[in-house]
Structure formats: structure tokens, C-alpha cells
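Researcher: Here's a chain I'd like modeled. Treat it as a single chain, no partners, no ligands.
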Amino acid sequence: MGKPTGFMEYKREVSGVQDPKSRIGNFDEFHTPLSEEKQRQQGARCMACGVPFCQSGVVLNGMVTGCPLHNLIPEWNDLVYTGNWEQAYRRLTKTNNFPEFTARVCPAPCEAACTCGLNDSPVAIKENEYGIVEHAYAAGYADANPPRVRTGKKVAVIGSGPAGLAAADQLNKRGHQVTVFERSDRVGGLLMYGIPNMKLDKKIIERKIRIMREEGVEFITNADVGAGPKSADTKAGAIKAADIMKQYDRVILACGASNPRDLKVPGRDAKGIHFAVDFLRSTTKSLLDSGLTDGNYISAKGKKVMVIGGGDTGNDCVGTAIRHGAGSVIQLEMMPKLPDERSEDNTWPEWPKVCKTDYGQEEAIARFGKDPRVYQTTVKEFLKDKNGNVCKARLVSLEPKKDGKTGRMVMAEVPGSETLREVDLVLIAAGFLGAQKSVADAFKVKLNERTNVDTAPGRYRTNVENVFTAGDMHRGQSLVVWAIREGREAAREVDESLMGYTNLYVQ
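Model: Modeled as a single isolated chain. C-alpha cells:
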């Protein structure tokens, strides 16, 4: 454990945050890491509790608590406290291929389950994860370490998001020759184009990809495997699924949940209404290509922006629109506002169902003087101007009611609550609905009722021989940490099918 009395001597501390009004002038990461001394104090707070809920990764009342990767958190907290950074990195990467990503974008269900959080503030686990991995890069512990022996087996991974990268990393470490196909022009999938640069600097992704290349993983971009016509956005070359099947011993499909949930209301065809993923992608691509000087992105400058959806993606849209110079931003949430403090029926170690004001909302408050979120509200209709551009949205209030047929609580319209709101840019951030059908059809894999690739429970092998799946394409839209776990578990199953046994570690 850390220091036996550490949790009584030291208070929780996390990284400093740049002032919202100054950070919205750029797309840089805006956290200032803790000093090494402070990181060691946070490691000292770890209690060596009898049952480390932080690494449990279990579902309680429909919510995940604890780390889905089962990271060996008490071990590396102790190693941080004693200053054994190299061993801390070895223990951290035993269960997590990409702590440099999760230390930035994971919502930290580990901290929600920390025993210290029962009566006090939880250990700053995410801060220590960041400190460990960045210390490793600075000291050279994270340098490339190619496998000494190759098996002669070839594996194709379709998709370079966190699941595909985790599977590729694991299988390469085992000695298989791995080729990752990415339809876009840059590697990273969701990490590259789905998460804004200020949340995950793309140099961090490129740093890890360079190491994976040095270790022997091959990456082919602009490769639209099995998806039919080439994309105008990526200028991807179409590659037949049948050719992949012939050239590789095994195939892993990790293409994500790429079908954005739409809003089916009158006026939806108006110009100026976009899916959030297209808005975020265009911004990041233009930022990386030209520093936003090429104009090849959906601009929110001077616009009256409406974001529909209250999750992480909606928040990212708020923060991005403000950096564009939006004239105003409103964010609609269908559900009621969560309480500011835990309710009595939401006890530890469940995930705390409390209202969280994320960085985008903080920036909106600083920029416009009020929280952009409007709860229990949705769009009933979009209105167009004479040129077909969206100019107004008809909003309606919602209230929770019990459905007489199912007995479930639903959000129903409040009669007479309609209002009109001027708007000229709408971003739909309502989530995603399963795998891209064209890819599934190309590889002839079955989809389940949720339109995800179908497998036996807890398994990753599809109905097609030698074809496996992982990540959001398999489980539906989820967290980066779940995608990494799925990629690791799929890699283990693939390795066993190739070699007859496996020594790939999955806790």
C-alpha cells in the first residue's frame, strides 16, 4: 500500500486547470500536471483496502463502477509513493495498453469506486496514471520493444480506434504480423477525430503510433475495407473483404459504432443541421491540416448554435463551438437535471448520479454568463428561411410519466409548452446505433437485434470462420476503456485460435 496514514495526512489534489476565458483561444490541452512530490502524496493516500473496488469493473444498478481493465491500481499507487516509476509503468501497462489515452479521456470509474471516497475524497488515481505514463516517456521506459520471435501468422485489424489498436498491440507483442487498416487519412479512429484536440492532443496519439510502427505493426490509411464506394472525406481506396480474407490468417473487425442517431422531426433536411461527429471531425482535420486556415470545416463562428444531446460528445461540441467564436450556445437535454449531491438510493460504490459541469459548460458559463444546458427539452420542428437554411427551432418541454402499457417511465411532452428559438447551426449529439452495415455485409457477419456484430456471450468470434470483432462494433457505443478491454480480449481469443494456446494477459 501507500503510506499507512497517508489518507489521513494528505488531501486529494488534481491537476491545475487553465482559466476558461484564456483557454478558449486555442485547441491546446489545458491541464497542468501535479508535481512529482504531489503525485507521490496522492499515491500515499491509497488505503490498501481489503477489497480494492477501484479495480473491480462491475455493473451495479446498470452502471459500471471500478476499472473495466482491472488495472492493478493499489500496486502502482504504492510504487508511485515509493518513487519506483519504472515498475509502476510495468504494472500499469500489464493491463492497459494506452494509459496515455485513458489518463486524459476516461471518466475514471475507478475513482468512483475508491474506498477512500466512502467517507472522504477518492484517491487521485487518474492523476497518478498520467504521471506514471508521462514519466515513462520522459525516462525512456516507454520506448519501442519489438518482439524477439515472429510466428509467421498474419492478422488484419479493420479500424484503428482504441479497440483495434489494443488488439493490434497485443497480437504484435505475441509475435504475429499485424496490419491495421484505417479508412481515414490518420490513424486513431475515435481517438483521432471523435475527441477534440484540447481533450486529447493528437501528438499523444502520433507518439504512440510511432512506437507501434517501430515495434512492427503496419498501418495502412485511406483504406476503405469492404465499405463500397470511396469516401469523399478520406479519399479512401476501396479494398475487397474477400482479398483481406485470402491474405490474412485472421481478421478483427473493430470499426466502431458508426451510425449516428438522427432526429426525425419536420424540417430536419434544412441546411445547417449536422451530426456532432461530422462537426468535430471537420474541425480536428482542418486544425491538423492547416491550423483551421483552410476553411474546410463546419464553422460555428458568429452562429447561434444548438447542441442536441447532453453527453460527452455534446459537451465537446459546446467547447469546440466556443473556440470557433460562436455567438451563442444552447445545449438541450431530454432528461431532468441530476442532483448536485448523491441521493440516498445511489450509495457508494455505485457510479455517482450527480450533475457534472464539464469543461465545455464551464467555458460557456465564462463566455456567456450562464450554463448552456436546458433540461427536459427537445426539438419538435425546425424552420427554414427562404434559402433552405435552418433559422428557428420549435422546442417543447418534457416531463417524466409512466407508460400505461409498459409501466416504464418515459419523457412525455408538456401540453402548451412550445417555444421558438432562433438558431442557425444545429449539432445532433444523440449517440450512435450499431455497426456500419456495409462492412458487416462485406464480411458476411451477422448482426444482433441492436445492430451490433453478433457473437456468443463473452466471446469475439463471429459466425464467419476466422473473423472476429471487438469494441463499439461489438458492444455498442461505450467508453474508451471498454474498447481497450474488448480489443485485449479479442486478441487473446485470436491468439488461441492461431496457436492452440495463449499467454496473452487479460485479468
